[in-house]
């Protein structure tokens, strides 16, 4: 059994590792690699997906689709408006990621846009217009040096 993950055993971990590398890998290929029946892999993947442990998605390279500007934005929010601010951010298509953080800033947000101008307009007209935003700190990503989706080793 894998420490820290209730209900996840070594077979599940092996399946997850293969799917992290290639989400389109067939159940037959995985079954052959780990020495179980194809039906076992199919059932395990179904259980992992329904329990929320595993999602199988296509990952888009943002730069290849024209989203060349990526910014991490720290946001200080008035405490009484934090929940409504989070709801508003979650509805914005430019916002890819929202996390509650500790310290001076309450939220960390990742935003993607096509240009400096588009990003500036988003920050000035939309982000700063959200009720409760007290202060922001915009951190531009200059070059992505590592971006992996392997969470289980």
Q: What would you say this structure looks like, in words?
A:
This protein is an alpha+beta fold and 153 residues long. It has helices spanning 10-21, 27-34, 38-50, 82-91, 116-127, and strands spanning 69-77, 95-100, 107-113, 133-140. It has two domains: 1-59, Orthogonal Bundle (Arc Repressor Mutant, subunit A), CATH 1.10.10; 62-140, 2-Layer Sandwich (Alpha-Beta Plaits). Strands 2-3-1-4 form a four-stranded antiparallel sheet. Helix 2 packs across helix 3. This is Lrp/AsnC family transcriptional regulator. One of its GO terms (cellular component) is cytosol. It comes from Alicyclobacillus acidoterrestris (strain ATCC 49025 / DSM 3922 / CIP 106132 / NCIMB 13137 / GD3B).
Brief account:
The chain is of the alpha+beta class and 153 residues long.
Please state the overall shape, judged from the principal axes of the Cα atoms. Answer: elongated
- According to CATH, the homologous superfamily of the largest domain is Lrp/AsnC effector binding domain/regulation of amino acid metabolism (RAM) domain
Looking at how many chains there are and whether they match, the oligomeric state comes to: single chain
Q: Which CATH class of the largest domain is shown?
A: Alpha Beta
What is the strand arrangement across the widest sheet?
A: 2-3-1-4
- CA-atom Rg in angstroms: 20 Å
Distance between the first and last residues' Cα: 14 Å
The run of helices and strands is HHHEHEEHE
Task: Give the number of domains.
Answer: 2
Number of helices: 5
Largest sheet: 4 strands, antiparallel
Helix content: 25-40%
CATH topology of the largest domain: Alpha-Beta Plaits
Protein name: Lrp/AsnC family transcriptional regulator
Pfam family, one: AsnC_trans_reg
GO cellular component, one term: cytosol
GO molecular function: sequence-specific DNA binding
């Amino acid at each position: 059994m894998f420490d820290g993950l209730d209900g996840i055993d070594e077979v599940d971990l092996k399946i997850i590792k293969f799917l992290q590398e290639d989400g389109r890998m067939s159940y037959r290929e995985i079954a052959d690699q780990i020495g179980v029946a194809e039906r076992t892999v199919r059932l395990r993947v179904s259980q992992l997906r329904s329990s929320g442990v595993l999602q199988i998605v296509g990952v888009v390279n943002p730069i290849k689709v024209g989203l060349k500007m990526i910014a991490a934005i720290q946001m200080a929010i008035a405490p009484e408006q934090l929940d409504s601010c989070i709801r508003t951010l979650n509805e914005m298509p430019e916002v890819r990621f929202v996390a509650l953080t500790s310290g001076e800033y309450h939220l960390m947000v990742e935003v993607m846009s096509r240009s400096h101008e588009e990003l500036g307009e988003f920050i000035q007209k939309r982000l700063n217009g959200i009720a409760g935003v007290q202060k922001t700190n915009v951190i531009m990503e200059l070059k992505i040096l590592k971006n992996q989706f392997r969470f289980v080793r």
